[in-house]
Amino acid sequence: MNIKGKYKLFKSFILHLHNSDYRKNHLNSCIPKEWQLLLISDGSFTQTLTSLTGKQIYIDQLRRYTYESINDVHRIRDIWLKDHKSNKLIFAKSLWFLSLNIDLPTTQPIGKSLILYQKDIYRDIHEFYYGYCTYLESKFHYKGPVWGRKYTIYYKQEPLTTLQEVFAPIVVTCFDK
């Protein structure tokens, strides 16, 4: 799964995380500390944002659709996470593997749903990336590069969803408060 269409992200830097030596040697030299804290976070990112901002975080679902591949049925969901002032903080695209047949609410962030329904999960982060997307720049009201990550959430050792998240640069200003 890659962000494409009007959300096309041109990645100028990708750090693949499956090679632990590469990760160990390049993480500190390539990614600023505040971004490392956000990108590596393995808890509910919505809860992290709520803690950083001191305000509730809202979801705005852009689109959701189902499609069938040769081996499975998938659901795609594109969302914004917004703060109390409607600032767009994160764009996320998720690919759901429907074979596990877990019915989670689509009106709230994934992490919140998994906590609410007490699902024991494992997260495998595939990569961090840095790049440009004119569409996201316009939505984030920021001209310049953005950071993102791609990961898969597993439930009972089976992939539940793969997510790509792109973070608005304003997110790191929460550390200044």
From TrEMBL:
Swiss-Prot/TrEMBL keywords: Plastid
InterPro entries associated with the record: Rv2949c-like (IPR002800)
Pfam families per record: Rv2949c-like (PF01947)
Domain of life: Eukaryota
Name assigned to this protein: Chorismate lyase
Gene that specifies this protein: ycf21
